[in-house]
Putative adenylate kinase (Methanonatronarchaeum thermophilum), 172 residues
Amino acid sequence: MKIAITGTPGTGKTTATKKLPKKYSVTHLNELVKNKQLYTEKDKKRDSYIIDLQKIEQTIPEKGVFESHFSHQLDVDRIIILRCHPTQLRKRLKQKNFNEQKINENVMAETVDVILLEAMQTQKPINEIDTTNLNPKQVAEKIQETIEKQPEENTGKIDWINELNEENDIQL
Ligand SMILES: Nc1ncnc2c1ncn2[C@@H]1O[C@H](COP(=O)(O)OP(=O)(O)OP(=O)(O)O)[C@@H](O)[C@H]1O
Ligand SMILES: [Mg+2]
């Protein structure tokens, strides 16, 4: 079984999955892509890589947990999406020293459910975990629980636009 842990950059995928017990054999795909040069190009302007999905598929183990903001694009059996309230996400991205433009792009992507919509197109089972008020250990526990119990899909419960609107952070 292959399980994708995905989510907008900054939602805490790497931090949380580093706290999973060894038996889940986590592959940190961003590291793998860099170390094994599984990309077609380096986008210097955006400080990112154009990944080579085919090469990645050929390189990764046959089972385990695969974490990255693109892991839902792989041939996985299940998808777990980490979510984070946009205001909290902005703080986490600042901690990562992302530049203002990258922070804004990612906060916007999280607000409008970009990864969820991409994941839904795969037709694979999806579970979302709201990490906003959880520490990394608690997120790891939720991931573990989701893997073990295989609960029903819970997509669509998170609605950041509505929450921001209620907090008067945006006007619709
Ligand atoms: N549950 C959490 N609560 C508060 N801060 C967190 C939490 N998880 C991670 N962080 C912090 O948020 C930042 C982003 O975390 P992390 O790098 O794990 O995100 P990521 O989803 O792996 O991002 P990327 O897709 O860019 O690799 C880090 O500074 C980390 O210390
Ligand atoms: Mg990461």
Observations:
- DSSP finds eight helices and seven strands in the chain.
- Helices lie at 13-17, 29-35, 53-59, 86-95, 100-111, 114-121, 136-149, 160-166.
- The chain has a mean pLDDT of 95.
